[in-house]
Fold this protein.
Amino acid sequence: MDFKLTEEQELFKKNVGDFARQELAPLVREIDEKGGFNWEVWRKLALMGLPGLAGPEEYGGVGVDSLLTQAIVVEELARYDFSSAANIVSNWSIIHVLTVGNEEQKSRYLAPLCSGESVGAFAQTEPNAGSDVASMRTTARLEDGYYVINGEKCFVTQGGEAEFTIVMARTSNEMGTNGISALLVDKDAPGLILGQKEEKLGFRGSTTRVLAFDDCRIPVTNLLGEKGKGFKTAMKMLTGGRVLTAAQALGQAQAALDASVKYAKERIQFGKPIGSFQLIQGILADMAIQLEAARLLTHQAAWLKDNGQPFNIYASMAKTYATDVAMKAAVDAVQIFGGYGFMRDYPVESIMRNVKITQIYEGTNQIQRLIIARELLDEKTSFREMYGNNKM
């Protein structure tokens, strides 16, 4: 077992960490208070090549396809600016889905995404279809060479900012997730209606909106991938997103630990730093133990993907454990700070607000536990056998 990062990975980690600390961290408070996607920050990220890090080189991307390298980059970003890390992951996910498109679609949409000139959006969740994707009601019927879309999507990240949105809609009457297709809807498509910008607890450096479709017409050539296979394609492409969500949580957990250790050395009570009290030491030790365990699990999931081994169950494990650990670390950090932890002048309250979403998006942690349990109970793909065959 070799836990040493490559020279390239170490360089990515240092450069991204230095950049995020110097260029992004000073802007976080202002962006959090203002809310919404910040194009100035996005351009800074573009100068570092981060929007297109996971994109194909022939379309202007950097071509880094190692999930472990991507996870390292995301963790370092999230350590200083959660919203930028989450926005980058969203961009990479859209890039991955677009790779199933035809050459015309790739030429039109991938290059601007990779350069940071534009952002895209992904619309799947509906008011009555969150975890229960099979209940999706948005439809797209063929009519004179166009798909006519009707329905509503909610929680659309970068809705209104994106130049295009990948919309999941039913293109047939098949039940369940069969018959769901992916459609490319441009920002100016007739019948696309932008809802009001949502005010969110955390992840405030993004724009989240409802999108409505009222006989929204798009050319039939805007079908992305195979008809009726959109959901399955997206889920296959987005499995790695669970690992990157874990990395986002790791970054915020590390930030919580960093702030707590610093505060424990500086805060004086009863004539001594609170870090000298064993109860505080125990909290800090548990934060560090759990963070390292979560990081190892996340890196293992990424390593398995990079080495062509089954990793779905590990992606679910990493996502679940890392985000739960991060949430606990954030709450413990607020407790260490005491009353000050509840104040916006100190960093830990925003960490607690940001981390909560990682337990919800990319599949709630309850859904991840169902996935893990079903793997355990599936005699055809025994987890014990999978584990025994995975050599590191």
Residues 97 and 234 are 6 Å apart (CA to CA). The chain is about 50% helix and 15% strand. The radius of gyration is 21 Å. The beta strands are 120-123, 139-143, 146-157, 164-170, 180-186, 192-197, 208-219, 223-224, 268-269, 272-273.
